[in-house]
Amino acid sequence: MRLYPPIQFDSKFAQSDDVLPDGTPVRKGDRVTYHPYAMGRSEGIWGRDCLDFKPERWLRSGSGSFCPPVNPFEYPVFQAGLRVCLGKEMALVEMKTVAVSLLRRFHFNPTTSSDDHHHPRFSPGLTATFSGGLPVLVRQRN
User: Fold this and answer.
1) Is 37 exposed, middle or buried (CB count within 10 Å of its CB: 0-12, 13-18, 19+)?
2) pTM
3) How many Å apart are CA 3 and CA 37, to the nearest integer?
4) Which candidate, 6, 4, 141, places its Cα nearest to that of 87?
5) Distance between CA atoms of 74 and 69, rounded to whole angstroms?
6) Which of 6, 72, 87, 88: disulfide with 80, CB 3.0–4.6 Å?
7) 50-80 pLDDT per residue, tens
């Protein structure tokens, strides 16, 4: 979800004058928009391998246990702070349950076009979709 968040961007309106952490002034009524899609690809947040899908970045070295980002504002897929999504924990449980159920029964292999550099193309919109879908070959496990 870091590389392909379900919501590409989100906006908030200031209820009163404020100052962002970087010193940017925000006046009452100003619209502030953040872009989780771009933030998930930010080298300044995620390092030089920011475009790589690396599940191990979420695991503690040694124990292998899940380690969420230290700063939830750097990974705002479920928003952060006072506006954190009320359904976040349920969504994560559902996602894990579905993933385990499917991965136990099937092999999934993304299919590629004749172009070896084929990557899913994000399609603009309120919710995330892939332009042309995401072709996947699904085979039942033995």
Assistant:
1) middle
2) 0.73
3) 6
4) 6
5) 8
6) 72
7) 999 888 888 888 787 888 777 888 888 888 8
